[in-house]
Write a structure and sequence with these properties.
By secondary structure, this protein is mostly beta strands. It has 2 helices and 11 strands. It has helices spanning about 45-50, 160-165; strands spanning about 25-35, 55-65, 75, 85, 95-105, 110-120, 130-140, 145-155, 170-180, 195-205, 230-240. The chain has a 9-stranded antiparallel sheet, with no helix packed on it. The chain has a two-stranded antiparallel sheet with strand order 3-4. A hairpin with a 2-residue loop joins strand 7 and strand 8. The radius of gyration is 22 Å and the shape is globular. The model has no long low-confidence stretch (mean pLDDT about 90).
């Protein structure tokens, strides 16, 4: 990526071979699981629904040794059709990530599932900034009421392009409370529900839509936004979902 034309980083669209997911790597994982009801296997695809333990926990850590860089990745432009290529890939470096999953089904009418994570993260594109990210999500069901919540610290936003361009937010919070006709589902299956959702996030120099000073020229690629206070944005959404089923 640092040579003059016609030299350039390889990519999947223009070259017969490019290194992306087949990146040279030596990795190790340590995983420990506590599951007192092995008949409902915790690693089954439908474990969210099938797991019936009063408390089941799976926790682990992954360490990746990456001695080489990667080639350039493609990305889709705002029009949803045009494909561009990043100017390069992330550099050679080692990264780690820890994760945990906690399931508690105290009785058929109450349960909770939590997923936690912490570690280092790299962008998909050419931005070389390494982030330290933390967070988790929690789902609680009590009879016909369901609470879904999420907290992310120094992490990417909800869409693919946030990781493509390494767009992060200092703090992201979401809470969704709903009631359903019939029993709530652990998976987001279609069902008749009435709910309210609150989303809030703070913004800094690494976030899109961050404009701390209206007098600045945001077209300047070398513009330094460090030192300004964090911004914020929020949304409250109410929703009513109808699910109509038919039987033959």
């Amino acid at each position: 990526g640092d040579v003059s034309a016609p030299g350039r980083p390889r990519n999947f669209l223009d070259d017969p071979f490019a290194v992306r997911s087949n990146r040279e790597m030596a990795a190790g994982e340590f995983l420990i699981t506590y599951d007192p009801t092995p008949a409902s296997w915790m690693y089954s695809w439908d474990s969210d629904m099938a797991e019936d333990a009063p408390l089941a926990v799976s926790a682990g850590i992954v360490y990746r040794h990456q001695p080489t860089t990667v080639d350039a990745a493609p990305y889709v432009a705002k029009d949803g059709r045009t494909i561009f290529i990043h100017t390069g890939g992330t550099p050679a470096r080692d990264v780690w990530e820890s994760h945990a999953r906690i399931v508690s089904k105290l009785n058929p009418n109450f349960g909770l599932i939590a997923n936690l994570y912490a570690g280092e993260g790299e962008s998909i594109g050419s931005n070389e900034r390494l982030i330290d990210r933390y967070g988790g999500d929690l789902r609680i069901i009590m009879n016909q009421v369901k609470l879904t919540s999420m907290v992310k610290v120094n992490d990417w936003g909800p869409y693919d392009y946030h990781r493509d361009f390494n767009l992060t937010y200092p703090l992201q919070i979401m809470a969704d409370l709903s009631t359903a006709v019939g029993r709530q589902n652990w998976f987001d299956f279609p069902q008749t529900r009435l709910g309210i959702r609150f989303t809030w996030r703070s913004l800094d120099q690494y976030s899109n839509r961050y404009f701390p000073d209206a007098s600045l020229d945001y077209d300047d690629l070398d513009l330094d936004l460090s030192g300004y206070p964090n911004g914020d944005e929020w949304e409250i959404r109410t929703y009513l979902i109808f699910s109509i089923k038919s039987w033959n």
